[in-house]
Amino acid sequence: MTERTGERADGRAAERVPLTVIAREWGRIGVLGFGGPPAHILLLRRLCVERRGWLAASEFEDGIAATNLLPGPASTQLAIFTAWRLRGTAGALVGGAAFILPGLALILLLSALFLTGNPPRWVLGAAAGAGGAVAAVAVQAATSLVPPSLRRSGPGPARTRWTAYLLLGAAAAVLTGPWLVLVLLATGAAEIAFRRREARPAASPAAPAVRADDETSRTGDSALGRPDEAGAGQAGADEDGAGEDRPGGRPRRALPLLVPGLAATGGLGALAWVAFKVGALSYGGGFVIIPLMQQDAVERYHWMTDGQFLNAVALGQITPGPVVQTVAVVGYAAAGVFGGLLAAAVAFAPSFLFVLFGAAHFDRLRAHRAVQDFLTGAGPAVIGAIAGSALPLALALGRPWQYAVLGLAALWLLVLRRGVVPCLLGAAGLGVLAAAAGLALP
Predict the structure, then answer these.
(1) Could you say which of 5, 87, 223, 388 has the lowest number of CB atoms within 10 Å?
(2) What is the spatial distance between Cα 431 and Cα 83, in angstroms, rounded to a whole number?
C-alpha cells in the first residue's frame, strides 16, 4: 500500500511512495531499458506521469530540461531525480542504484565473452539489429513530450518561438555535439527576455494581482510535498601517469579478474580519470562519450584494440540501462571485474552528487518566474535534441538490412504505437536472423 501525505495543488493527495516500490519500478526500467536515453525517458514518463500519476507532466518536462543542462548521463540523472521527488535522498539512492545495477551486471558478464576472444556472430547480429531500431525510439520519445510542452508555451508568438527552439535543439544535436548545452542555455535565456519584454507594456495597477494568480497557477502542479533531507557524497579521481605502450597496442587475449601490474599500462588512477571524464565532463548525450573513451582506451593506454572497443559500444547499445555503461567494458578490459566496477562507480557518482546537491532547491527555483520562463524555452529545445539525435543514429548504421530494421521499428512505434521493449527485442532477433543468413555485419 502507498502511504499518502499532504495534498497536491490539483486536489489529489500526494503520495509517499515506499522505497520497496521505487526499487521494484526503477529496477524494472533498469532491466527493460533497452535503447539508451530515449527509451529511459519514455519508460520513466509512462511510469511517473501516465501510469502512477506521481508527477505532473510539466514537472517531468522540467526534470528533463534541468538534467540535460548537467554534464554526464542525462537519463541516469533523470531517473535519480524522479526517485528523489518521491522519497528524497533515500529514494534517489535506491532508485538510482536499481536503475543502474541490472545493466551493469549484464554488461560485465558479457564483457568476459567479448574481450577474451571473438564474440559469437549471433551476438554481433543482435547488437546490430537493436542498434538499427534506436533512431526510431528517439523519435517516439520526442513526440511523446510534444503535447505538454506545447500547452505550456501558450498561443500566438510563444508558439512560434516554441517551434524555433525545437528546430534549434534538433540542429544542435546533429551539428554541435558536446556544445548542445549552450543551445539549451541560449533558448532558455531568450525566452526569459521575450517574456519580460511582452510583460512590460501590459504593466498596470492591476498587474501585481494578475502576476500573483499566474504565479500560483505556474507552481501549483509541483506541490508534491517536500522530500526529506538531501544528502551528499564525494567522488573524485586522479590521474597517475600515462601508460606504457605495448607492441602494436594489442591487449591480452584472456583477461584475469585482477591485474596487479596495471600501473604499467596506466594504473587505476588513469582508469578512474577516464571514467570521471565520462561521468562529469561530457555534454550532449550518451553518444558523446564514445570518441572520448576511444582515444584513452585504445590509443593512449592500449587497454583495448579498435575491434574490441567497437564490441564495447555494441554492448552499450544492446544491454539495458544507460549508454554510459560502456565505460564498465573499458574498465573490465583494463582491470577485470574490479576495473569494471571502479569505472562504473566513478562515472555514475557525479550524477548522484549533482541531483543530491541541487534537487533540494529545485522546487523554489521552479516557483520563480524567470526560472519558469527559462524552462519554457529550454524544454522544446530538449525535445528537438532528442528527435535530432535520430539522424546521426540512423546515419551510423553500416548495413542495408539495418535500415530495413529501422523502417520496421518506425512502423511499430510511430504508426502502430506499440511498445519500445518488444520493438528492440524484435530488432535484436532480426539481427540474429541476419547473422545466421550470412548477411554482412557492421
Answers:
(1) 5
(2) 35
Burial class (CB in 10 A: 0-12, 13-18, 19+), 208: exposed
56: DSSP letter: -
What amino acid is encoded at 331 in this protein? Answer: G
Residue 213 included in any domain: no
User: DSSP string covering 331-347, please?
Assistant: HHHHHHHHHHHHHHHHH
Strand partners, 355: none
147: CB partners within 8 A, 6+ apart: none
Same structural domain, 319 and 371: no
**DSSP structural state of residue 367:** T
Q: What pLDDT is recorded for position 11?
A: 39
Distances (CA, A) of 23 to 44, 45, 58: 13, 17, 24
Alpha helices in 120-219 (DSSP H): 121-153, 157-175, 180-199, 207-219
Q: Name beta bridge partners: 7.
A: 13
Q: Are 34 and 84 within one domain?
A: yes
More confident residue, 399 or 204: 399
Q: Which value, to the nearest 10 degrees, does the dihedral of the CA atoms of residues 53, 372, 287, 40 take?
A: 0
How many structural domains is the chain composed of?
Answer: 2
Choosing from 349, 374, 405, the residue where a domain stops is 349
pTM score of the predicted model: 0.62
Contacts of 71 (CB under 8 A, 6+ apart): 181, 280, 281, 282, 283, 350
Q: What is the pLDDT of residues 219-271, one digit of tens each?
A: 333 333 334 433 333 333 333 333 333 433 444 433 444 433 443 446 888 89
Nine-digit cell string for 55: 508527477
* Residue 164 included in any domain: yes
Digit-coded pLDDT (tens) for 22-49: 999 999 999 888 767 778 888 999 999 9
